[in-house]
Write a structure and sequence with these properties.
This is Glycosyltransferase 2-like domain-containing protein. It comes from marine sediment metagenome. Pfam families: Glyco_transf_7C, Glycos_transf_2. GO terms for molecular function: transferase activity. Keywords: Transferase. It is a single chain. By secondary structure, the protein is an alpha/beta fold. The chain has one domain: Spore Coat Polysaccharide Biosynthesis Protein SpsA, Chain A (Alpha-Beta Complex). It is built from nine helices and twelve strands. The chain has an eight-stranded mixed β-sheet with strand order 1-4-3-2-5-10-7-11, sandwiched between helices. Helix 7 packs parallel to helix 9. The longest helix is centred in the C-terminal third of the chain and has 16 residues. It is globular, with a radius of gyration of 18 Å.
């Protein structure tokens, strides 16, 4: 079966040392600009940055392309009316990555400057690492952030502490391929990160959080937006539809009851593209 994942924009980076994947659907403007901008300013360079656009409208995709135009990143686009799946969007990027280490970063996060540097050092010293993080869920909405000067201001904003399973997840590319990525049965929202954290433990991975390393300039901030606490707080849960709540219950059931490591089928990530490199066995 052929798929229609489109390489909407190609950015060829010579000898990248780390792949970062940003999954999106109809999300553009300041939040996405802040996210990709913070990745572009990382101390670790050069990077392969992949924007995985799963299901944006034609207009939304155009807005995304305009938002990321200033940055050196590739964009893959899969037009679909299917319900949003963070797992599929992330897997789209993973299957098209080329570096040995791959991090997925939600499109509403801002990374301080040494996040990827510390992640890579950790992977090299502990090869079976599966790294997640605690993030600051900021509770004030704002626009464009001037970086790196703006980090001091972000630290002063009130926040909720995350559960520590995701938002950013980093592991060896070979391990994602071994387990076929994030579980693509998970749709709408919820359990993607906790599920892969559990599977990493079942597979004997060395699981820990970036925050455990006690390094400087590795803060991760979640930018507040409408619906970002869907299902977490009563006032936001009330705005979800019954179908969305049903999906969240289904996700939770998979997380609690499925204790297998290998998920999906060979079409995970909406099938591979033809490899550009000679080491095609990696695909």
């Amino acid at each position: 079966m052929e798929c229609n994942v489109e390489l909407a924009r190609e950015c060829v980076v010579e000898d990248p040392v780390f792949t970062v994947i940003v999954p999106v659907r109809d999300r553009w403007g300041a939040r996405l600009r802040n996210c990709v901008g913070s990745i572009a300013l990382q101390t670790l360079q050069p990077l392969e940055i992949i924007i995985a656009d799963y299901g944006s409208t034609a207009e939304g995709h155009k807005e995304i392309m305009e938002t990321v135009e200033p940055f050196d990143c590739s964009v893959y686009y899969y037009p679909t009316n299917e319900i949003w799946s963070l797992s599929i969007a992330r897997n789209m990027g993973i299957r098209r990555s080329s570096c040995d280490q791959v991090a997925v970063v939600d499109a509403d996060l801002i990374l301080e400057s040494r996040v990827l540097e510390v992640l890579l050092d950790s992977h090299l010293s502990r090869p079976s690492s599966y790294i997640s993080c605690f993030i600051r869920m900021l509770i004030v909405e704002f626009g464009d952030v001037q970086m790196p000067e703006g980090f001091a201001e972000l630290k002063e904003i009130d926040y909720w502490a995350s559960a520590g399973f995701g938002g950013l997840v980093s592991a060896a590319r070979s391990w994602y391929f071994k387990v076929r990525g994030f579980d693509e049965r998970l749709k709408f929202w919820g359990s993607e990160d906790g599920d892969l954290w559990k599977r990493a433990g079942l597979d004997g991975m060395d699981r820990y959080r970036l925050n455990d390393l006690n390094q400087e300039n590795v803060g991760i901030y979640h930018q507040y937006h409408k619906g970002c606490f869907s299902g977490s707080l009563p006032e936001h849960r009330a705005s979800t539809t019954e179908e969305q709540r049903r999906r969240m219950r289904w996700n939770k059931m998979i997380f609690e009851r499925d204790h297998t490591v290998l998920r999906n089928n060979d079409m995970w990530g909406l099938k591979r593209f033809i490899p550009k490199r000679e080491d095609s066995f990696r695909y």
